[in-house]
Specification:
Length: 450
């Protein structure tokens, strides 16, 4: 493959000499359960480029699993972190408060959908945010049950594993799980019966959702329904407005809280601050994390004032929750999204990605589906278009080939056969196009090796 003025530059085998040495040390000290995507170690990163310890440079289409929407080590984020560290690193908000926590909460409440009054609390990880949303919903409603959706992913704690739909690798042999967690079906248009129209399919899926609640639980026992506006680990599956609105309307009718899990879809990834904004509903609670802090651990729950106030003093929080470094990083992220117009940038990235993937679909029998919302895009690989049999092995080969050519890439989906892209939204056009071409070349090489 001939790429002039290439940004990706892999000069060694993977792993290289230095990485191999560190990898051997890893094997001796790190549990096998802690996985890795590429057999090398980062040395430095900026924007959409990552350099490893052996001097290889990679274009990042993984974004630390959707954490780096504003890019690696954005100067404004670095400046904000450094300035805060010079003042103080941590006091514990539950011990001595700091203004940045308040300022960030005010800004996020103003950005969140809905005209109702809102309050905000901060935590450390996406799983913690979801876990606390469940706590808050139960406290407010005095009801025990929580409903999530097939293929959904919500975290790795006991509660969030219970809520997650994919067994391997997230839940296998880690049970028993938390009680009063139920799962409803979520639309998967690519795999619906072809004779059913999109509208009829969505209507059917709403009815199936209602059947789960009314047939297996009873509406007066359901505290909350938790939905990803676009399923992340589930395969970047985008529901239709009819389904989302149908679920939301039923929740309102039955006094069930609607929770939008924005961990992966938030902070400009879909072309808006929150993925749920595309569906014309205003959730009672939103969970946020990942790109919120540009790599600094921070998460949060945004919700209706009366719901958020249900818990009493001391019932919510944690030692590091909403750390000063995380708050300042998140404030910088919000400034960057606005100043660099990243919501619009995400839309343009998404349009180009869908166009590129669609061309691959026309050319290759193995590209079964292309889908996405904003810059949250994916293509699903299958044995052939007729059978739609998932091709997990081909997907793994494509990702391996991409790594060899200097592209960090991720898979997803219930069958492990979806290639998803989560490149920083600040990626240059040159880097972006080069990354797309690497995917095309990697697909070609993977097919030739079969």
């Amino acid at each position: 493959m001939n790429r002039t003025a290439a940004n990706a530059n892999v000069k060694t085998s993977l792993p290289g000499e230095k990485a191999l040495s560190i990898l051997e040390r890893r094997k001796q000290i790190i549990p096998d359960g802690v996985s890795y995507g590429i057999p090398t170690f980062a040395h430095k990163a900026a924007g959409a480029l990552v350099e490893d310890v052996d001097g290889n440079t990679f274009i990042d289409f993984a974004g630390a699993i959707g954490t780096i929407n504003v890019g690696h080590s954005h100067p404004k984020v670095v400046e904000a972190i450094n300035k805060q560290a010079e003042q103080f690193i941590h006091t514990g908000f539950n011990v001595m408060m700091y203004e940045s926590y308040i300022t960030l909460a005010e800004k996020l409440a103003a950005l969140a959908p809905g005209e109702h009054e809102k309050k905000v609390m901060f935590l450390n990880s996406g799983a913690e945010a979801v876990e606390n949303a469940v706590k808050i919903a139960r406290k407010y409603s005095k009801k025990p049950a929580v409903v999530t959706f097939s293929r959904g992913f919500h975290g790795r704690t006991l509660m969030t594993m219970s809520m997650t739909g994919k067994v391997k690798p997230y839940k296998y042999e880690f049970g028993p799980f938390a009680p009063e967690v139920y799962r409803a079906p979520y639309p998967y248009h690519y795999r619906k019966p072809e004779e059913i129209s999109d509208e009829a399919y969505e209507e059917y899926m709403v009815k199936e959702f209602i059947n789960v609640i009314e047939g297996e639980i009873s509406p007066d026992q359901v505290a909350a329904v938790v939905m990803e506006p676009v399923q992340g680990e589930g395969g970047f599956i985008v529901p239709g407005k009819h389904f989302v609105k149908g679920v939301f309307d039923y929740c309102k009718k039955q006094d069930i809280l609607f929770v939008s899990d924005e961990i992966q879809a938030g902070f400009a990834r879909t072309g808006d601050y929150f993925g749920i904004n595309h569906f014309d509903v205003a959730p009672d609670l939103l969970t946020i994390s990942k790109s919120m802090g540009a790599g600094v651990p921070i998460s949060g729950v945004i919700g209706r004032k009366e719901v958020m106030d249900a818990a009493g003093p001391g019932e919510l929080g944690g030692t590091y929750s909403g750390s000063p470094l995380g708050c300042q990083a998140a404030l910088a992220v919000l400034d960057i999204i606005e100043e660099e117009n990243l919501n619009e940038r995400a839309k343009r990235i998404g349009e180009r990605t869908i166009e590129f993937f669609s061309a691959l679909k026309e050319e290759y029998e193995c590209v079964g589906d292309v889908r996405g919302l904003g810059a949250m895009c994916a293509m699903e690989l299958v044995k052939d278009k007729m059978s739609k049999t998932p091709d997990k092995e081909l997907t793994a080969k494509v990702i391996s080939e991409a790594q060899k050519q200097g592209l960090l890439l991720l898979s997803a989906g219930a069958y492990g056969n979806v290639i998803r892209v989560l490149m920083p939204l600040v990626i240059t056009d040159e880097q972006f196009e080069e990354g797309l071409e690497i995917i095309k070349e990697s697909l070609k090489r993977a097919l030739e090796s079969e």
